[in-house]
Amino acid sequence: MSVPAPLVGIPLRPQRFDGLPPRQVVNRAYVASVEGAGAVPLPIPMLVSPEHLRRLFLMCDALLLPGGADVDPGRYGESVDGACAVAADPELDDHELTLTRWALDADLPLLAICRGTQLLNVALGGTLWQDIAAQSAGDPAHDNHGSATERTDLVHDVDVVPGTLLHRVLGTGRLRVNSLHHQAIRAVGEGLVVGARAVPDGLVEAVELPGSRMVLGVQCHPEELTAEHDWARRLFAALVDTARR
């Protein structure tokens, strides 16, 4: 008798265009990567009722936190720096912080990507660089938005820390990754350890939570790379395999 495929929850995010009704969406690449790893993606909309949200959460065998809007600096005790380009959505922060804290409390396998990694860090008491370029925190080229590059372009290397979960999952100490972020982890959240750093500026590129079944965050966008890169597929396979076990 076959075991049902795990359900991987993916929070939806708001999308607003002039002249159109508000929507809740997620990039198709996340859905395809989760399904390609053998799981069933379960979209989790923003809901009015916490009880209804909790009911959806309890159906999940794992949680995927996608990329998206900036995390509000107020969530980590700062005001918006006037020199920084910060575009946050309080409703989305509420939605995903709630799901993240529930997942951590339940020791649910969790893979966080880009914004998701930053949100995970904030959920555990960490802080962020509000804007890498404006705060001279690292190479401004971490943010490829608005350039001629593709989301799949590999633009810098990362060094993976030996002995970490990330190193065991990927089986390599160095990767070349895509990069689509203008914020980054500053002070690492309680209990998290750094799993990778960017070359050459040393910005945090991955974090993980030792002692958990699997709590792993990466700053790049592996969902865009699963068609061509085995290491990207390995991340989603690890999430799904952990959820299945």
What key attributes describe this structure?
245 residues, alpha/beta, Rossmann fold, nine-stranded mixed β-sheet, two-stranded antiparallel sheet, 6 helices
How would you summarize the topology of this molecule?
Blueprint: E1 7-11, E2 13-15, E3 23-25, H1 28-36, E4 40-44, H2 50-58, E5 62-65, H3 90-106, E6 110-113, H4 115-123, E7 128-129, E8 156-160, H5 165-170, E9 174-177, E10 184-185, E11 193-199, E12 204-208, E13 215-218, H6 230-244
Helix pairs in contact: 3-4
Polypeptide structure, described:
The strands form 3 sheets. This protein has a 9-stranded mixed β-sheet with strand order 4-1-5-6-13-12-11-8-9, with helices on both faces. Strands 2-3 form a two-stranded antiparallel ribbon. Helix 3 crosses helix 4. It contains 6 helices and 13 strands. It has 245 residues and is an alpha/beta fold. The chain has a single domain, classed as Class I glutamine amidotransferase (GATase) domain (Rossmann fold). The chain is globular. The model has no long low-confidence stretch (mean pLDDT 93). Helix content is 27%, strand content 22%.
In short:
This protein starts with 6 loop residues before the first strand and ends with a helix. Strand 11 (about 195-200) and strand 12 form a beta hairpin. Helix content is about 25%, strand content about 20%.
